[in-house]
Inverse folding.
């Protein structure tokens, strides 16, 4: 859209030149020079006009002005002016929520500044690109471009740019929750600003430190920094900075529960914004006032404030601001039981968010990170619908609220396919699977659970209260399943912090060479697995099938995808979930519809590809002798030659994996890669990105390696290797939730393939393999067998 728009403006500039040239005659050199001077003056006029409009929050008008200046700069060949106009257009598109266009224009500006040697401008454009990535929630990318900008600013001794970039780095780390890093960067910015006597830079750094301490919950400290920032901004006469400080002070007093005082500061910020004609500031102040009134229980006043904020955001074309204002408005309506109004506002909020997300194209990372901003509206809408006894409509929203990017990608070859499932679609998916589905939603710490039976009957049950978070339930269950010496939650408390850190990171983990003694086999220490059963399964147990081995499809919400479901233990009967049911997991029911369709349409495929114990391993990883024996045994069963030892190179895998009927990897693993042998072409790490961008015909991928079902937890689901293989076209993926013991894994996999060869479904074969492995005394503990999960198609 951006390039077509530029073309229209270029046409307008050409028409202007024709008018200046006069009718019916050539013009001489002097006249050309006069025309060029006029054109340059006109370009500068439009450029400055755009700045004034942008500062007033008139973003669409600024786009028009900068577009006209861009066309004129191009006509007269002013490359510096062209680059500046492109960069400003990128910033305007960022405020309008059109991030793809923003990135495109800023990249064009970067190319020109690189070409003409404008190092100062290059550094500042990188900073602007970081702002766009920050809006998208791509904080690591933002940090990367900020670091590049900082290098350039330091080379040029550009103190103001150094200070601003240090502040931007601090803010990015704050969004990541790394507050110590954030404070460190803001303190560096503050020290430099004081050293070079850049008073406004000092005020900005103080305000940013206040924000960091605000998010740490240290509100008195935050207020102290914000007051100092305000004082300097008043001294320098910077009204924009004063307005920001007043708003921040209001937010801090709000957090302290001093709502009247907070409202007073927001009124001051509003008055200042109105005096400046700053539409963005006015809209933000109304939004903050709405929050204050809502906290005081003055809900009608809150609604009026949110409506004024919304109206201004719409006039400005601020799509992201519109989406957030509609969310706030819907939340306020729900508090006073105006549920119809709440539903309408929340659905409009989601539509506004979606309009931005669809503009992000095929960039999965941007879509996933931006989707996090929508989760509050999805959760609030489910609560509103269930409050009005519309459990089935809430289920539609619950399924739409997960794995959106994955499901949309898998459905790309069906342009007429719906982007989400309605009730008929949900029932059809369950009917095709001939299974009972359990769909979970964590709504404000209260667990909502839908059960959908093959006959189409849907039941919702939810907790009235909860003693712990869903995250803690997951953490305790995992600790019980992986720690044979745990004797209850208190005894494993020291391990939980490490588990928490590991689960939220991408630290490399090996497939472990571990075996457990008979002393570890008792069920003591499985409190977490019992408690998880009581919370997740017991409330719906009467709705589940009673046939032995009946199929359950579990659609978890966020952290629940990391729970070892097979090992959950009913304290009353001492039976585990796998004793009763055949289990599969799905990121969403919509995703399951697509994996089922893909399974039906897969071509026959070539021979299986079996990989085991590459040698030497990359990065000095230890060899896995049981993995090699596992691969050889599976290959012999299918009369093929495996890739083991020196033959298991990354290049060899890539030569055949796209046509293989199924893939088996018995090696080291990690949430981000599978270990293979390094060669001249490849580094030996088959990464999630490489898998993500491949096109596979395999009906099954088995990752007999560590942590391949783990990854970052998002609204999209678990961003794991398993998700990467699903996106690559594989309908069924077996992955692991933790470090799996080498010997127990080899034993389990031999049984799995024996059952597959005998005609069992993938899900039934995995269940039998886990049960038989558990029956071995040396492998009885869940650590040895419960890590394996089947995601996607059961058959």
């Amino acid at each position: 859209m951006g390039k077509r728009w530029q073309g229209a403006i270029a046409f307008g500039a050409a028409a202007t030149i024709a008018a200046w040239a006069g009718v019916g005659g050539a013009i001489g050199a002097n006249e050309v020079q006069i025309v060029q001077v006029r054109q340059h003056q006109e370009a500068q006029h439009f450029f400055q006009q755009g700045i004034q409009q942008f500062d007033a929050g008139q973003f669409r008008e600024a786009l028009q002005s900068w577009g006209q200046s861009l066309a004129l700069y191009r006509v007269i060949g002013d490359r510096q002016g062209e680059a500046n106009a492109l960069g400003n257009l990128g910033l305007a598109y960022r405020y309008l929520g059109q991030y793809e266009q923003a990135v495109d224009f800023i990249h064009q500006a970067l190319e020109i500044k690189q070409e003409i040697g404008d190092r100062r401008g290059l550094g500042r454009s990188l900073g602007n690109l970081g702002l766009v990535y920050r809006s998208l929630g791509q904080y690591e990318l933002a940090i990367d471009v900020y670091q590049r900008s900082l290098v350039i600013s330091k080379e040029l001794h550009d103190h103001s740019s150094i200070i601003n970039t240090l502040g931007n780095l601090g803010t990015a780390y704050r969004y990541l929750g790394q507050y110590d890093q954030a404070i460190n960067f803001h303190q560096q910015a503050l020290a430099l600003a004081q050293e070079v006597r850049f008073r406004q830079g000092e005020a900005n750094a103080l305000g940013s430190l206040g924000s960091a301490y605000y998010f740490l919950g240290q509100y008195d400290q935050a207020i102290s920094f914000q007051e100092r920032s305000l004082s300097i901004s008043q001294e320098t006469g910077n009204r924009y900075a004063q307005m920001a400080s007043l708003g921040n002070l209001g937010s801090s007093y709000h957090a302290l529960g001093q709502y009247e005082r907070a409202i007073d500061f927001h009124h001051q910020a509003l008055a200042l914004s109105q005096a400046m004609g700053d539409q963005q500031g006015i809209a933000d102040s109304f939004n903050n006032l709405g929050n204050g009134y809502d906290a005081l229980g003055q809900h009608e006043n809150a609604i009026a404030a949110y409506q004024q904020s919304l109206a201004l955001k719409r006039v400005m074309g601020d799509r992201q601001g519109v989406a957030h204002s509609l969310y706030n408005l819907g939340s306020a309506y729900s508090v006073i039981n105006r549920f119809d109004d709440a539903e309408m506002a929340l659905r409009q909020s989601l539509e506004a968010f979606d309009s931005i997300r669809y503009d992000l194209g095929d960039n999965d990372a941007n879509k996933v990170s931006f989707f996090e901003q929508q989760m509050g509206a999805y959760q609030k809408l489910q609560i509103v619908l269930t409050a009005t006894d519309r459990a089935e409509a809430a289920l539609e929203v619950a399924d739409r609220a997960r794995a959106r990017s994955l499901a949309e990608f898998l459905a790309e070859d069906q342009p007429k396919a719906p982007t989400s499932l309605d009730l008929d679609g949900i029932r059809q998916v369950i009917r095709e699977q001939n299974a009972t589905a359990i769909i979970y939603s964590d709504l404000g710490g209260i667990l909502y659970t839908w059960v959908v039976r093959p006959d189409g009957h849907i039941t919702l049950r939810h907790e009235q209260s909860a003693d712990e978070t869903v995250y803690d339930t997951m953490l305790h269950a995992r600790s019980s399943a992986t720690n044979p010496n745990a004797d209850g939650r208190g005894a494993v408390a020291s391990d939980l912090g490490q588990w928490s850190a590991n689960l939220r990171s991408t630290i490399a983990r090996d497939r472990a060479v571990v075996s457990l003694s008979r002393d570890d086999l008792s069920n003591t220490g499985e409190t977490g697995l019992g408690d998880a059963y009581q919370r997740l399964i017991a409330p719906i147990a009467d709705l589940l099938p009673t046939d032995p081995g009946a199929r359950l499809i579990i659609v978890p919400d966020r952290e629940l995808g990391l729970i070892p479901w097979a090992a959950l233990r009913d304290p009353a009967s001492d039976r585990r979930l796998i004793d009763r049911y055949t289990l599969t997991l799905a990121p969403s029911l919509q995703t399951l519809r697509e994996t089922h369709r893909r399974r039906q349409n897969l071509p026959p495929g070539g021979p299986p590809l079996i990989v085991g114990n590459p040698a030497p391993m990359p990065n000095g990883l230890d060899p896995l002798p049981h993995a090699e024996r596992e691969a050889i045994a599976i290959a012999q069963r299918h009369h093929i030659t495996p890739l083991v030892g020196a033959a298991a190179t990354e290049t060899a895998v890539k030569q055949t994996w796209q046509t293989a009927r199924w893939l088996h990897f018995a090696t080291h693993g990690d949430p981000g890669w599978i270990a293979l042998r390094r060669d001249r072409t490849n580094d030996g790490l088959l990464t999630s990105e490489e898998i993500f961008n491949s096109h596979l015909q395999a009906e099954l991928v088995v990752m007999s390696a560590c942590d391949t079902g783990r990854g970052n937890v998002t609204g999209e689901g678990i961003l794991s290797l398993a998700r990467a293989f699903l996106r690559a076209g594989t309908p069924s993926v077996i992955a692991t939730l933790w470090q799996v013991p080498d010997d127990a894994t080899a034993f389990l996999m031999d049984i799995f393939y024996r059952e597959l060869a005998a005609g069992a479904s993938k899900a039934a074969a995995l269940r039998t393999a886990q049960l038989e492995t558990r029956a071995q005394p040396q492998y009885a503990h869940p650590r040895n067998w419960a890590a394996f999960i089947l995601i996607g198609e059961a058959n």
